[in-house]
Amino acid sequence: MTPGGGSGPMKDCEYSQISTHSSSSPMESPHKKKKSVPKRKWEVFPGRNKFFCNGRIMMARQTGVFYLTLVLILVTSGLFFAFDCPYLSEKITPAIPAIGGILFFFVMGTLLRTSFSDPGVLPRATPDEAADLERQIGNTEDIANGSSSGGYRPPPRTKEVIINGQTVKLKYCFTCKIFRPPRASHCSLCDNCVERFDHHCPWVGNCVGKRNYRFFYMFILSLSFLTVFIFAFVITHVILRSQQAGFLNALKDIPITVLEAVVCFFSVWSIVGLSGFHTYLISSNQTTNEDIKGSWSNKRGKENYNPYSYGNIFTNCCAALCGPLSPSLIDRRGFIQPDTPQLAGPSNGITMYGATQSQSNMCDQDQCIQSTKFVLQAAATPLLQSEPSINSEELPLPGKTTISGPCATLTLGQPTPPSSMPNLTSDTGLTDMIPLKEEHEGHQFLTPEEAPSPPGMLPSGSPITHSHTMHVLSLASQDSLHEDSVRGLVKLSSV
């Protein structure tokens, strides 16, 4: 309640508050239109990947072969459970469909876990990080070459680090703008650098790397068991039918079982062979990429021994399958942080630069003193070079200090000294004006547009005449003086 003012201001304040929070207020509609939903990082992900379920599922763009894998597993297993398991559970044991079901769900779970997860994608460098890295590389190259100048040079391809006594080269990725960590590689299909890159598997529709390799291995291993299991009991079904009605008649009675046997026969060799190959890689702690390139040898005595191997098969298997799962580095479901706005300058127009603020203030003061001296000198020069005399009556100007002699006519827009200056005569020296400025350091000078008209610029018809000829500067010197004075005023105003 304000004294003597009643409750009017309070009511207005309350009304404004209610109207601001009201959903039907017309003042709030522009804010609603400007409000934008922040994007998640997967929506602007630079790699060639597809995301589903708001970024929870991450796959490669080429997923056609993955769907073929799903169809083969689902159709083969479905036919087995529908046409073979009833007969086998009745003739042999009900445990057959139960074991087959467990293997089937384990295969599907590991397949989806491998296909839908982040394989270990490394985040790309930001523009600032990439520029800083290239600057460091450029400085290193200049020092190595013995020169500090020159055009742009591409960064070197490799760096060398030592791991367990073995020299390992780190390659520079021109796409991601980073030096890849050891065992990482850039996938050309997904356009990403993947940590501990093994290979890109089209059958699972994703890269196989550090974060999903164990699930990939469990998938192919369990799929091998499932394929062998189905193939074995399909043959058992055919044999039991052949004992009752003959082999040819059995083939005619159960064509679906024959189809299953054919599919499993051609699949089991590749699946079991792939499982055996990756079992060898895990036991030696290698990746498919390293084995194909022949990067390391399994023998410790050789020069190119594997620095990542623990020297024990059991330890290598435990490290690959039972070690802690590293978190995802790309944070694909995180929100994009808006750019940090620049700090607004203070009211006096001086920009704050943190640690360099004191240095910039000192420089600004020096520039201000030099600019002020230059402006006073430029403004006083035409006044000092004239020797006028007045024959008629002097016209006092309101609010201005009376001048004993008229000034030389100045061109429009030429800077003039401030009104606080004392009377000027023809004998006044320039040295008398500089201390005057130093005595009034806090004076605010005006720009050419805001400056008042000089005392010599009187309206036409004023009764002022000159007794003898005035010494006027030439036109070229006036123009140069005008440009220099305006330039000094611009410097002063920018400070």
Succession of helices and strands: HHEEHHHEEEEEEEHHHHHHHH
Strands across the major sheet, in which order? 3-4-5
Number of distinct helices: 13
Head-to-tail CA distance between termini: 46 Å
Determine the fraction of residues in helical runs and give it as a percent range: 40-55%
Rg result: 44 Å
Query: Based on CA inertia axes, which overall geometry fits?
Result: elongated
Given as residue ranges, the uncertain stretches (5+ residues, pLDDT < 50) are 1-11, 18-26, 340-363, 382-446, 453-476
Report the major sheet: 3 strands, antiparallel
Number of strands: 9
Protein model, in words:
Helices cover 46% and strands 7% of the residues. It has helices at residues 8-21, 29-34, 64-91, 95-115, 127-145, 213-245, 247-253, 255-284, 288-293, 313-321, 357-384, 434-439, 475-494; strands at residues 49-52, 57-60, 158-163, 166-173, 178-179, 185-187, 192-194, 199-201, 206-208. Strands 3-4-5 form a 3-stranded antiparallel β-sheet, with no helix packed on it. It has a two-stranded antiparallel sheet with strand order 1-2. Residues 1-11, 18-26, 340-363, 382-446 and 453-476 have low confidence and may be disordered.
